[in-house]
Amino acid sequence: MTYGWMILILIGVLAVLYTLGVFKQGSVAPNICALPANVGCVSAALFPNGILTVNIQQATQYTINVVAIGCNTQGTANALSLPNVIIPIGGNSTFVVPCYTSTWATYNGAIGAAYTGYLLVNYTDLSTGFTHTASGSLIQKVV
Question: Degrees (nearest 5) of the Cα angle 72, 48, 76?
């Protein structure tokens, strides 16, 4: 077999991989929902209308009250939902929040598109009364 045939086979394989979408940026990006150790992201799903369903687990020493939660590309505490949900030690709760773009419009994406932003969780430690903010990275494919 000559080098010419090898190159043709390689081009054919690359063409097949390209048509399957292997080289699209969103196709290889994993879903990431990373929060600090005290407040973890158990699961997350982002829908085409920009609604994020996220399950948050708390690992602090005391019961907490989630007073605000939000999803945006800026990483700021703007446009947060105000659930006021109490989570006991080791417990978890599911939240449904809209994700926003850099212009503060609700995100709209096609199925398979990747959203990159931040998840912010504001909570109060019920034993001390101190408030805390957990901020983490969020990369989700639209489902």
Answer: 5
Q: What is the CATH number of domain 31-141?
A: 2.60.40
Q: Tens-of-pLDDT digits for all 143 residues of the chain? A: 588 888 888 898 888 888 877 766 555 568 999 999 899 999 999 999 999 999 999 999 999 999 999 999 999 988 899 999 999 999 999 999 999 999 999 999 999 999 999 999 999 999 999 999 999 999 999 99
DSSP per-residue string spanning 87-98: E-TT-EEEEEEE
| pTM, two decimal places | 0.80
Cβ-contact 100, 114 below 8 angstroms: no
